[in-house]
Amino acid sequence: MSKPAPRLKAPATAPRTVAARAKRATPPAPASASEDLDLETRVRADHHASVRLWLRLLSCTNLVAAELRRRLREEFDCTLPRFDLMSQLERAPDGLSMSEVSKRMMVTNAAITGLTDRLVADGHVERVDDASDRRTFRIRLTPEGRAYFLRMARKHEGWVVEMFAGLDDRKKTTLRDLAGELKRNLRKG
Q1: CB atoms within 10 A of CB 96
Q2: How far is residue 39's CA from residue 47's CA, in Å, rounded to a whole number?
Q3: What does the alpha-carbon distance between residue 2 and residue 42 come to, in Å, rounded to a whole number?
Q4: Is the entire prediction scored with pTM above 0.90?
Q5: CB neighbours of 84 closer than 8 A, spacing ≥ 6?
Q6: Residue extents of the structural domains in the chain
Q7: How many other CB atoms are found less than 10 A from the CB of residue 137?
Q8: H or E segment at 141?
Q9: By the 8 A CB rule, do 179 and 164 touch?
């Protein structure tokens, strides 16, 4: 006959009632049956307000980015990272070094190289020698690439305006100002 397994004592911090355990273990129900689950469903009542805010911001960012990715892919056969790279280049008519683009987009040089290779193959970007440093080159939009990007940028702006249409201008300004304050505090960090 085997001995029954020893019963482990619950840690002192564990909820003691069934209701308390259920409250901690069960994520909040979506506001509607059609609402998709996202990062914010991880939030529990006992999470710190900062964690709850971070997950809300991250969830909103992910929802907007996913919709932009879908629309760019469907209407322009373009990825969001390629659009972002072209956006950086559109602001720099003389082009940028790979390192400059990498810093602006906060990704590795290797990631920029892959994006650049595809855009060069598509005729949207060209590599040119850097006059100040013959060991490196700059990348810039071709005239065709600039026209392609500007068509996408107009649509992109309209999509963003559409996605934020549920907020009036006062609320958008308040959110932008608060996010700016958070960004400044994070950079001081």
Answers
A1: 20
A2: 13
A3: 40
A4: no
A5: 105
A6: 81-168
A7: 16
A8: strand 137-141
A9: no
CA distance 74 to 49: 38
Question: Residue holding tokens 């969001």?
Answer: 80
The two structure tokens encoding residue 75 = 């209407």
- Nearest in space to 124 (alpha carbons), one of 69, 76, 73, 159: 76
Q: How far apart are the first and last CA of the chain?
A: 61
Task: Write out pLDDT tens, residues 46-85.
Answer: 778 888 899 999 999 999 999 999 999 999 999 999 999 9
Please check whether residue 152 is in contact with residue 72, taking contact to mean a CB–CB distance below 8 angstroms. yes
Token pair belonging to 182: 């958070």
Mean pLDDT, rounded, for 144-172: 97
Roughly what angle, to the nearest 10 degrees, separates helices 109-121 and 98-105?
A: 110
Distance CA 105, CA 88 (A): 8
| Beta-strand pair 125-129/137-141 | antiparallel
State the CATH architecture for 81-168: Orthogonal Bundle (1.10)
The two three-digit tokens of residue 103, written as one number: 């810093």
**Closest to 96 (Cα-Cα) out of 145, 137, 138, 124:** 138
Selection from 154, 153, 146 nearest residue 89 by Cα:
146
Angle value at C-alpha 92, between 90 and 98, nearest 5 degrees? 100
